[in-house]
Structures
1.
Amino acid sequence: MQPIIYAVGFGPGDQLYMTTQAVSVLQKVDIIVGYTTYVKLLQEQFPEKQFLSTPMRQEVERCQLAVQVALQGKTVAMVSSGDSGIYGMTGILLEVVAAQGANIQVVAVPGVTAASAAASLLGAPLMHDFAVISLSDLMTPRSLIEKRITCAAVADFVICLYNPKSKKRTDHLAQATDLIAQYRKPETPVGIVRHAGRAEQAVWLSTLEKLKEEPVDMFCVILIGNSQTYVKDGKMITPRGYQLESEVML
Amino acid sequence: MQPIIYAVGFGPGDQLYMTTQAVSVLQKVDIIVGYTTYVKLLQEQFPEKQFLSTPMRQEVERCQLAVQVALQGKTVAMVSSGDSGIYGMTGILLEVVAAQGANIQVVAVPGVTAASAAASLLGAPLMHDFAVISLSDLMTPRSLIEKRITCAAVADFVICLYNPKSKKRTDHLAQATDLIAQYRKPETPVGIVRHAGRAEQAVWLSTLEKLKEEPVDMFCVILIGNSQTYVKDGKMITPRGYQLESEVML
């Protein structure tokens, strides 16, 4: 039988937000492999399981570890928070398996991505077309990130920012805010969710002009409204009704 | 006690892809309200439940129905396929509750959106920044849809198209393809998923130059790769490694 590695997106962290497929896969596999922090989250919920972990930025090594274990005849789950298919481990896992020519089947188990989890806590900010952009420049040139932000702003997409800040990257969010502010009003609603769906969860509303001052870190997801987004009764809502075309043309 | 309406995203349809929270909410509520087609999907899985439905395009009426039932003291789940917060019912439900001044709490239960479900079947096309665009012009001017498509193409986003075609809208996808083809190579990989996660599921790969000829309908989600996306061993993969900047500038 061909060995299988499941690339499992486990959502925010709690079983409440996992799909029943994710739960059953995590229950049935021999070994769960993941980033150290996520492994800790899952160990509490699956205490009888065997876990293997590697630190952040050792994604390739993590995949090689999973391949090695799978080739020994164990069934393996490689876990990502959110959806394994959105900035998660599915891609690099497929690449490592292909590069090694390993006879392994990769089965992707999708999950609730951070944008969905954050949106559900803020109201309904993603009711219309949106762009998802990571501000991390570890793997992407800053010029490309800036271009994507500008294009998303021009096109009046709701903008969802992943990895908005880290200890080393403190100015990217300010720069992104300045770019967006060229095309959107200062009072544009902004929703910030930190540790969505976890014990430390924090959810708050801000505006584009105040975004730079917000206490944002790497555990936050930021949703910036389009020209129609409004706040009512504490909920951030992007209506689906007819929208006026933005003044700014390409 | 304040009445509650749960806005539940149930994913592709099968309980396998529902979160455990979605399953437990659907099990505990008195009444499930939804679009006729989705109600049929859920009736098979929750046969003991009471259901109410309205046809497509009667979203406001559906919300009014849910509000009416909730005010009678019943707990209600308003269902959407995918994620209730992405082109789903959460937004219009919040708007109807606010417009009526109804003393009702809306609790959003996020789910696996169609982009995630489709991506998991195609490989790993959403490993980098992406834009989600609906081609339906029922509620959005075509000029705005065209602008978003062009901006997404210029910015080298992976592009995910929802509602790519309907019986009345047969030319929108061809037009979108022409716009994208101005900025992306003819051989750009395209993934098409019809009825993701359902019995009728179909998954196939194509290219930008062949997209117009594909048998696409309203049940499809289309993922168009960025300049780095490739196909290997039948999997569509967008790498996360350093990307070359696109030649096209704003």
Note: The two ends of chain B are 54 Å apart (CA to CA).
2.
Amino acid sequence: MKHKKVKIGQAQVDYFFDSNLTSLSRITDKKSTILVTDEHLVTAHPQKFSSWKTIVLKPGEKYKTQATVDDIVSQLIGLEADRNTTLVGVGGGVVTDLTGYLASVYMRGIRFGFVPTSILALVDASIGGKNGVDVGVFKNIVGTIRQPSFLLHDHRLLASLPEMEWINGFAEIIKHACIRDAAMFRELEDHSIPFFQRNKKALADLIRRNTLLKTKVVQLDEFEKNERRLLNFGHTLGHALENQYNLTHGQAVAIGMVFASRMSEKITGFRQAERVGRLIENYQLPTAISYDRDKVFEVLKMDKKRARKEMNYVLLQKIGKGVVHSLPLDYLRSQL
Amino acid sequence: MKHKKVKIGQAQVDYFFDSNLTSLSRITDKKSTILVTDEHLVTAHPQKFSSWKTIVLKPGEKYKTQATVDDIVSQLIGLEADRNTTLVGVGGGVVTDLTGYLASVYMRGIRFGFVPTSILALVDASIGGKNGVDVGVFKNIVGTIRQPSFLLHDHRLLASLPEMEWINGFAEIIKHACIRDAAMFRELEDHSIPFFQRNKKALADLIRRNTLLKTKVVQLDEFEKNERRLLNFGHTLGHALENQYNLTHGQAVAIGMVFASRMSEKITGFRQAERVGRLIENYQLPTAISYDRDKVFEVLKMDKKRARKEMNYVLLQKIGKGVVHSLPLDYLRSQL
């Protein structure tokens, strides 16, 4: 178990890399801790949960709603959770987003930590304190920013991860490479998902590298005034497509990254949109779908990054270097 | 208009005492501001709202729920509210609690301010950043602590305040006197609600004194680790009674203060429970009701101030001096 202490804003976060869920009891007191997970994980690893108080959710983004939060609040009251209770989200991005949100508002805030169990949650969703729920097609429109007390990685839990979820997670890894790490972009070009599935050491290195990359960005700008906005690369169009066209988050972001790369060619002089598209295809992600431009624009314009009639849009200057441009909504519509 | 800048934690809050709702447009840009209020206020003062984008809620504590939050979120999306939008809660404690909560979670937090229009909201609910909603009989069990950007007082709006709400608000004023201001306690003994209704200068002084008293307590301890806990005087039993027995917040807190005063006689040697009871009666508030001990204890033990098997209970040492004692739950049950 490799332990690293990280400071994000006012918060101290303990990272436990290459660890084991069985070590969790050394980090948080079993008597006052409640795990939040989903049916897939409990079915795949029943013995890991048997000695903990556990709230089990139905799996899937469609349950990332206020109704689920209400239901968990009732369960927490039933379990007599108080201000000394710690919640631990064990699962993918839906579980970590919900658990973080819940812990931020239950009794006006209780301690929480994460055991991310998908590639996406490991390299992205569990890091940086953003949490939230969806309202209709509007993704994460309600939420807070609050840092977890700890992250614990147990790569054994990836054994039960469906193939689609591997692909999903690599979209965020490609995003990180595009905006901040040209060397990692080249490394990804040299490999593939099967390579990382076979090679545990390479996978552990990649997860650690992405965790630290995102952590660095969040440390520079916890409340997303500057640098952190880069992490939205591919997400503005991505979020608008995701729930309307029944895409996974990774698929939607991949299409959003290709769109933003093409727009970058017109605006920043970026010249490698094709190379971005090729890497995305190599990781089994889509580069385009046909969609209803008006319907997508109606959702896109409500993106949290809008400021009145302009949208802060993340573009690429070169591979490894993201930039934010303020684009008029009308222009954006014309590009869809 | 008397302007005072106050620092609470990291936040800067502008207080505008003795002001006028018509001055609001000097504090916040009309184009990017949305008012949140209730049907009573719009009916009583229609001309005050006509030039603002306004979301109108059904009045009453029973609407202080997540369902109302969801409904307002949908309306905000309809109004294209973005991260540059300011929400202003114009109303009593229910409106300010809901608006503060909403502004804390919508798009992970937008700017907000309050125009409190009841005695309770003026002297208590609008100050200190606590917000939240109820889940079933559990009051404010979901919420955050986040400071408003400004408070604006317009005493003209009290003209439409029902008599019951005057009584309701004085419960919190008596609470402030009990825990921190013996001189104000004596002043309250010398007067009555009709006196303050007739005497606008005395009322304005009283509101300002209570606003600053609560502000001072919150400045000392924004996140309720020490001093701020005193503000819960009367509220532990009060919250457990309020929704179960259909009492107003003030009535429930009054009964809670009498209960805590009597317990103080046994624990701290306090000797003026009778005097507290008399003042409460003089302000037309109840000192006791009959209730089902088991039902009340079931809710009381889930109070946010519980720590495992103990409850941090606010008692009085003398009038003007509150203290927190950790009491075993079993003992508390025996005292009900």
Note: Chain B is about 45% helix and 20% strand.
